Amino acid sequence: MKFLIICFTVSFIYLFGCGSDSTTNNGNTGNGETVIFSMDSLSIYLNSSIVINDTLFDILNSPSIKIDFNCQTNADSVNSFALFRIIAGDSNIVYKDTSNNNISSLNNNHTIYISASNTFTLSILIQLNRTNNLQYFMKLKNIKVIKI
Fold first, then answer.
1. Residues with Cβ < 8 Å from 12, sequence gap 6 or more?
2. Mean pLDDT over each residue of the chain, to the nearest integer
3. Tell me, what DSSP letter sits at residue 78?
4. Is the separation of the CB atoms in 86 and 94 below 8 Å?
5. In the chain, at which residue ranges do the beta strands (DSSP E only) sit?
6. How far apart are the two ends of the chain, measured CA to CA in Å?
7. How far apart (Å, rounded) are the C-alpha atoms in residues 116 and 112?
8. Which of 120, 116, 3 is nearest to 60 (CA)?
9. What is the average per-residue pLDDT within 128-140?
10. Is 28 exposed, middle or buried (0-12, 13-18, 19+ CB in 10 A)?
11. Residue 134, beta-bridge partner list
12. What is the pTM of this model?
């Protein structure tokens, strides 16, 4: 009898305990915005006196975008210098050229809005310098370019 109850319980859990695991992602954030590019991270771990790392890509059919990301660094502004820079432009116009090298505000979430032409180039750049042999890093995490 115990065996029958255990079999019934296991069968019940097996049949009714499973939900739908199908996931559909069309990039829509639910409020009229669509993620058109995402990157897990853009990082520098400094093993020389200066390192620059960047990514460059074309934005098509998206004249209004926002860029969301989280910045983390252990740069201290005394022995090291860190910055991120966002540049958006086409062959005729620079729509946005912004830098943040303020140590007190780097370790934070950031959102940058860009209004441009229908097609333009977007560059995300990070730079880290040091004056001693200590280990420094800078990382932009959860980078999302969102069409608004």
1. none
2. 83
3. S
4. no
5. 34-45, 50-60, 64-73, 80-89, 94-100, 108-115, 119-130, 137-147
6. 63
7. 13
8. 120
9. 91
10. exposed
11. none
12. 0.75
